[in-house]
Amino acid sequence: MSREEHVPGSKLSTSAGNAYGNAAASQAAVATTNAAAEDNRTIYYVCGDCDKRVTLNKSEAVRCNSCGYRVLYKERTKRLLQFEAR
After folding, report:
1. Distance CA 39, CA 73 (A)
2. CA end-to-end distance (rounded Å), the chain
3. Who contacts 19 (Cβ-Cβ below 8 Å, separation ≥6)?
4. 80, part of any domain
5. Which of 21, 34, 43, 55 places its Cα 20 to 30 Å from the Cα of 78?
6. CA–CA gap between residue 21 and residue 47 (Å, rounded)
């Protein structure tokens, strides 16, 4: 049983226990929905040999569509990332 499926305190008969169990159940439903959405998204890579853009789903083989090369690099994000150095 995974951590997301386990709902601690769901067998309590008090009203606080029921409210906690309902909140945990709704969070588990949201986590399941997010996991399903992550399975359907495509991720963009760049081929290490021909530098073409390759899109892959989770279940596809790691291989360039045009040249068949198996080394793919994940594209860098366009979002601004800022780190604080000490």
Report:
1. 20
2. 41
3. none
4. no
5. 34
6. 47
- The answer to whether the pTM exceeds 0.70 is no
3-state helix, strand, coil in the chain (%, to 5): 30, 15, 55
* Same-domain pairing of 21 and 54: no
64 in the same domain as 30: no
Whichever domain contains 49, its CATH number is 2.20.28.30
Q: What DSSP string describes 70-82?
A: --EEEPPPSS---
Report residue 13's pLDDT band, with 50, 70 and 90 as the boundaries.
very low
Q: How many CB atoms lie within 10 A of CB 27?
A: 12
Structural domain containing residue 7: 1-41
Q: What is the DSSP letter of 36?
A: H
Using the predicted structure, report yes or no on whether residue 36 has a pLDDT greater than 80.
no
